[in-house]
UniProtKB/TrEMBL annotation:
Broad-specificity nucleoside monophosphate (NMP) kinase that catalyzes the reversible transfer of the terminal phosphate group between nucleoside triphosphates and monophosphates. Has also ATPase activity. Involved in the late cytoplasmic maturation steps of the 40S ribosomal particles, specifically 18S rRNA maturation. While NMP activity is not required for ribosome maturation, ATPase activity is. Associates transiently with small ribosomal subunit protein uS11. ATP hydrolysis breaks the interaction with uS11. Residues 38-61 are annotated as: NMPbind. ATP binds at G18, G20, K21, T22, S23, R114. Interacts with small ribosomal subunit protein uS11. Not a structural component of 43S pre-ribosomes, but transiently interacts with them by binding to uS11. This is Adenylate kinase isoenzyme 6 homolog. HAMAP family: Adenylate_kinase_AK6. One of its GO terms (molecular function) is ATP binding. Belongs to the adenylate kinase family. AK6 subfamily. PANTHER family: ADENYLATE KINASE ISOENZYME 6, POS9-ACTIVATING FACTOR FAP7-RELATED. It comes from Heterostelium pallidum (strain ATCC 26659 / Pp 5 / PN500) (Cellular slime mold). Coiled coil: none annotated. The lineage of its organism: Eukaryota, Amoebozoa, Evosea, Eumycetozoa, Dictyostelia. The keyword Membrane does not apply. Its EC number is 2.7.4.3. GO terms for cellular component: cytoplasm; nucleus.
Length: 174
């Protein structure tokens, strides 16, 4: 937990691309009156990158620029950040880290619908198989704040909303 007491907690929702981070983040932010920060959109909007990666068809984000951009916002609390990576965010920013996991067959279909190229799909499927984001989160944050949740079905998403909502209510009571 942060050394600065916030009125509302900050939550990181992370996982392999296609696991439902943005959908879950948007619903939670609307339901609980949090601000949602989609890192990929922020990087594009504020040009917080070092150019374009042709192989993976994405911007090469500048971690320092992103952190500088978000520092004041994160100190206020009540933020849900969604991004596929997590190890470079300051640990003090988050009170809960959710790692979404998805069945690789379903994930493959979701990535194809996004028109990802073969290299990008294979890289992301491997990332999910080898639990790379989960391991990154466990190595970067206190184990007690890292939660792994399944995100394959609509029912999983609804269940995750309930679990995180209960956690937010519990945090607020403290």
């Amino acid at each position: 937990m942060s050394t600065t007491k916030r009125v509302k907690p900050n939550i990181l929702i992370t996982g392999t691309p296609g696991t439902g981070k943005t959908s879950l983040s948007e619903i939670l932010s609307n339901t609980h009156d949090f601000k949602h920060v989609d890192i990929s959109a922020l990087v594009k909007e504020k040009e917080l990158h070092d150019g374009w990666d042709d192989e993976f068809q994405c911007y090469i984000l500048d971690e320092d620029k992103v952190c500088d951009e978000l520092e004041e916002t994160m100190n206020q609390g009540g933020i849900i950040v969604d991004h596929h990576g997590c190890e470079w965010f300051p640990e003090r920013w988050f009170d809960l880290v959710i790692v979404l996991r998805t069945d690789t067959k379903i994930l493959n279909e979701r990535l194809k619908k996004r028109n990802y190229n073969t290299v990008k799909i294979e890289n992301n499927i491997d990332c999910e198989i080898y639990q790379m984001i989960l391991e990154e989160a466990k190595n970067s944050y206190k184990h007690e704040i890292v939660k792994e949740l399944q995100s394959t079905t609509i029912e999983d998403n609804e269940h995750n909303q309930q679990i995180i909502g209960e956690w937010i209510n519990s945090w607020n009571k403290q």
